[in-house]
Design goal:
The protein has 2 domains: 151 residues, Protein-Tyrosine Phosphatase, Chain A (Alpha-Beta Complex), CATH 3.90.190; 96 residues, Four Helix Bundle (Hemerythrin (Met), subunit A), CATH 1.20.120.10. The N terminus is likely disordered. The protein is built from 10 helices and 5 strands, in the order αββαββαβααααααα. By secondary structure, it is α/β, with parallel strands linked by helices. Helices cover 53% and strands 8% of the residues. A hairpin with a 2-residue loop joins strand 1 and strand 2. Helix 3 packs across helix 4.
Length: 279
C-alpha cells in the first residue's frame, strides 16, 4: 500500500505525537509496538534525532542497509545499534542480535527501516517476542498494523517461526555499524533475489522474487546516494531499477529464460563497469 506520508517527513512532529498516543496512530506514522518499543521510518535530520532524545528514547536500532548516522551533537544519550536485514528473510545472525537488543538494550527503543513499514516492524516484532512483550499473534498483528506487505513473505515467515535462544546462549555483539558495507549487503541481497527469480517454478514465485530484486536495487541506490560519490554507478543503478520495475509487472507472464534475456544484460553491463571497484 502506498504511504500517504513521505518517509522523509521529519520525525520531530511524528515522534512527539505518536510516542504519547501511538495506539491511535495510523500506519503512516511510527507505531507503538509494545511497552517501550516503537517502530517507524528513518530519522533524516538533526530535528528528527533531537526529537528522539526529547521523547526519552534510549536506544535506536536501524535495520536498513545504512547505519544510524545522526548529525554531530544530535545523539547525546542514545545507544545506536545497526542490524541490517533484507526484505526476504531475517537470518539467524540478525535474529540473535535482535534478541540481544530485547535482553540488554535500555528502553524506550526506536526501531526503524527506510519507510517504517516492512523490515522495521518485522525486527520490532522479533524484539517484542524475545522480551515477552508480545505473544506470536500479537507480533503478527504488529505487522498487520504496520501494513507490512504480504509479498515480503520471508518477513512474515520468520516472525511466525521465531523461537528465543536459551537464556545462557552467547549472542552476537551489538555495534553501531555493520561490518559489511550497505552496498555490499544490498548487492548480496540482489544476487540472491535474481537467482531465486531464475530458479522459480511458478509465475507467482517469479513475481515474488522479482519484487525482491526491485527492493534490493532501491537499497543499493540509497547506499550510493548516502556516500555522495560514484555518480556513474548511481545512474546505472537507476537505469536497472527502472527496467526491473517494468519487468516486475510482466514477470508473471515471462519464463526464466525470457527474464534473463531482458534483465541479464543490464546486470552484466553494470558488473563490467563497477563490480571490481565496488565494495
Amino acid at each position: 500500500m502506498r504511504r500517504l506520508v513521505s518517509p522523509r517527513w521529519t520525525a520531530a512532529c511524528l515522534l512527539v505525537t505518536t510516542i504519547a498516543t501511538a495506539d491511535a496512530a495510523p500506519p503512516t506514522q511510527p507505531l507503538r509496538a509494545a511497552e517501550g518499543v516503537y517502530v517507524g521510518g528513518a530519522p533524516t535530520d538533526a530535528t528528527a534525532w533531537d526529537a528522539l532524545v526529547a521523547r526519552g528514547v534510549k536506544t535506536v536500532v536501524g535495520v536498513e542497509g545504512i547505519p544510524p548516522s545522526p548529525p554531530s551533537g544530535s545523539s547525546e544519550g542514545l545507544r545506536l545499534v545497526h542490524i541490517p536485514i533484507g526484505y526476504g528473510a531475517i537470518d539467524k545472525a540478525a535474529s540473535d542480535r535482535l534478541t540481544r537488543v530485547a535482553r540488554e538494550a535500555q528502553r524506550p527503543l526506536y526501531i526503524y527501516c527506510h519507510h517504517g513499514q516492512h523490515r522495521g516492524p518485522a525486527a520490532a516484532a522479533i524484539v517484542c517476542l524475545a522480551a515477552n512483550l508480545l505473544d506470536k499473534e500479537g507480533a503478527l498483528d504488529l505487522l498487520r498494523r504496520a501494513q507490512t506487505d504480504r509479498k515480503y513473505a520471508g518477513l512474515w515467515r520468520d516472525v511466525a517461526a521465531y523461537r528465543a535462544p536459551p537464556a545462557d546462549a552467547v549472542l552476537p555483539e551489538l555495534t553501531p555499524a555493520s561490518p559489511s558495507s550497505p552496498l555490499s549487503l544490498a548487492m548480496c541481497q540482489l544476487d540472491r533475489a535474481w537467482e531465486a527469480t531464475l530458479k522459480s517454478d511458478t509465475r507467482e514465485d517469479r513475481h515474488t522474487a522479482m519484487v525482491l530484486v526491485v527492493e534490493s536495487l532501491k537499497e543499493s541506490r540509497r547506499a550510493v546516494e548516502a556516500t555522495g560519490a560514484r555518480p556513474g554507478l548511481l545512474a546505472d543503478l537507476q537505469e536497472a531499477l527502472d527496467q526491473a520495475r517494468e519487468i516486475e509487472h510482466a514477470a508473471t507472464g515471462l519464463d526464466p529464460e525470457e527474464l534473463d534475456q531482458r534483465f541479464g544484460p543490464q546486470c552484466l553491463r553494470c558488473h563490467a563497469t563497477h563490480r571490481d571497484t565496488t565494495d
